[in-house]
Amino acid sequence: MTGSTESEASYDRRRFNQWWAGRARAEGVARRDILRLAAAAGLASTLPVGLSASRAGAVGEGVAVGEGVTVGEGVTVGEGVTAGQGVTAGQGIVKPLPPELFTLHGTNAETRFEALADTGFTTPVSHFFVRNHTRTPRLDAAAWKLRIWGDGLTGAGRQFTLADLKSLPPVTRTAFVECAGNARSFFRTLQNQPVSGTPWNTGAIGTARWRGARLSDVLRGAGLSRRAVDVMPRGLDDELVMPDGTNYGRVRRPMPISKALDDVLLAYEMNGAPLPPDHGFPVRLLAPSWVGISSIKWLGDIEVSTTPLYSPWNTDFYRLYGDAYPPEGSAPLTRQTLKSAFELPWNATLSAHTRHRLTGRAWSASGAVTRVEVSTDGGASWRPARLHDHARRGSWTRWSIPWTPRGSGPAELLCRATDSTGRTQPQTTTHNTQGYLFDAVLRHAVTVRA
Ligand SMILES: Nc1nc2c(c(=O)[nH]1)N[C@H]1C(S)=C(S)[C@@H](COP(=O)(O)O)O[C@H]1N2
Ligand SMILES: [Mo]
Questions:
Q1: How confident is the model at residue 89 (pLDDT cuts 50, 70, 90)?
Q2: Which candidate, 234, 432, 251, 401, places its Cα nearest to that of 333?
Q3: How many angstroms does the Cα of residue 52 sit away from the middle of ligand 2?
Q4: What whole-number distance in Å separates Cα of residue 128 and Cα of residue 122?
Q5: 415 contact partners, CB below 8 Å, separation of at least 6
Q6: What is the DSSP letter of 356?
Q7: What confidence category does residue 325 fall into, taking pLDDT thresholds of 50, 70 and 90?
Q8: How many angstroms from the chain centroid is the CA of residue 92?
Q9: 292 CA distance to ligand 1 centroid (A)?
């Protein structure tokens, strides 16, 4: 398996060209998105007169849910809505969400990063974050079928039962799933920049051992045409309906055939057991290294197309908007970025003149983490941490470093990772309005007690 070769920008341009030529369907894509995509592809000047580009307010990952999405029988769940106002945060999630392990944000549950200190390399289901646009559906594995369809197949398509998938050669892969908005809250707290969406700290990530069939085997088994360019996996969870009545339909996001045939799994096991309900039972996609939204849970069908596909999840959401980006946004997000964090509560108290073992994790979607450095003096000096795992791209490594604080009072701990591409976490992340891909060095506040 090799990495995809086509650059994201040229891919986007090619898809747009095909689409503009009238060969893609615009299902679920608003007219303003046509303008945005046109400009992204550098084709704005070729647009018919009268179509002036104006972008509606971007809706962020989690704003979608966080700002009040209708869930189920008319129950509105909002970030600002708390249990005290009649809605239970974390509702729609099946597994227990003890407060020592999770912070709740509307329909989502964030892992407390410090709780990972008690876990090994992989994240147990009991600790794994949940990002639900609506709520976890309860599906019957015996009745479940995956439908592969579309004009990118040579025949009429095919349905796979769970037993069919299990009869294909199984592949096991350890990989993280990380939300594109992970660490979003630091745009505000470290850079004083407004962003929309769920204000995650660093806990919208988990690493698991996934087992399943190769998407490429399934697509070929369904009769993949050489003319296919995009696949669009879609979940069986509820349609996403906004408070203003906009119905985005079921969660779905296209990916290029190059990624689909590269390393994507149809996972039916997580850490050696059947997928739990909240993580996509009976089958989810696992798109290693890519933004979490690519790993569609509760998979129901996959469209295979000879023309580019669009959904709100690659037009309105999961592109970068803001001053540094064209008005129409960046190309659709693909890979996650490079980050590191301490497994320590925020504002933890540590006693002075005691040798502490600081621990954390570092991860990269582009290469293996090769170095983690720690500063305990606010960034003036750095020491190398010890890496405890054989880090690979799309996975993480645990690290540790001893620290004996001398003074007392507030202190800031910094950690900074470097990966095998040579990239080191920057001091700041370029702002984008939806707060995706924050990768700057964090400043972890602690108090040293004399
Ligand atoms: N069907 C479906 N798939 C989905 C989602 C969803 O709401 N519905 N959320 C996506 C997002 S934004 C992320 S970050 C990951 C989270 O996976 P997890 O809940 O297993 O941690 O699932 C993705 N797949
Ligand atoms: Mo996400």
A1: confident
A2: 432
A3: 31
A4: 10
A5: 340, 341, 342, 360, 362, 372, 373, 374, 375, 385, 399, 441, 442, 444
A6: E
A7: very high
A8: 19
A9: 6
Distance 321 CA to ligand 2 centre (A): 17
Whether 176 is in the pocket of ligand 1, judged by its Cβ within 6 Å, is no
Is the distance from the beta carbon of residue 253 to the nearest atom of ligand 1 less than 6 Å? no
Average pLDDT in the chain: 85
Residue 395, pLDDT score: 97
Contact 418, 424 (CB under 8 A): yes
* d(CA 181, ligand 2 centre) in Å: 6
18 phi, psi to nearest 5 deg:
-65, -40
CB proximity list for 89: less than 8 A, separation 6 or greater: 77, 81, 82, 83, 104, 105, 106
CATH topology of domain 338-449: Immunoglobulin-like (2.60.40)
Is residue 337 within 6 Å of ligand 1 at its C-beta?
no
Superfamily of 1-329 according to CATH? Oxidoreductase, molybdopterin-binding domain (3.90.420.10)
Q: Do domains 1-329 and 338-449 have the same CATH topology?
A: no
Confidence of residue 318 (pLDDT cuts 50, 70, 90): very high
Which amino acid would we find at residue 376? T
Look at residue 206 and tell me whether its pLDDT is greater than 60. Answer: yes
Q: Does the beta carbon of 294 lie inside 6 Å of ligand 1?
A: no
Domain ranges of the chain: 1-329, 338-449
Residue of the CA atom closest to atom 10 of ligand 1? 293
Closest to 255 (Cα-Cα) out of 211, 299, 309, 307: 309
pLDDT at residue number 83: 27
* Better pLDDT: 135 or 33: 135
* Model pTM score: 0.85
Residue 46 has pLDDT above 50, yes or no: no
DSSP string for 395-437 = EEEEEEEEE---S-EEEEEEEEEEETTS-B--SS----TT---
Write down the pLDDT at residue 438: 98
Q: Which ligand is the nearest neighbour of the Cα of 131? A: 1
Q: Which of 133, 145, 152 is nearest to 301 (CA)?
A: 145
Q: Ligand 1 in contact with 251 (CB < 6 A)?
A: yes
Return d(Cα 105, Cα 10) in angstroms, integer.
Answer: 36
- From atom 16 of ligand 1, which residue's Cα is the shortest distance away? 131
Average pLDDT of the segment spanning 365-372: 98
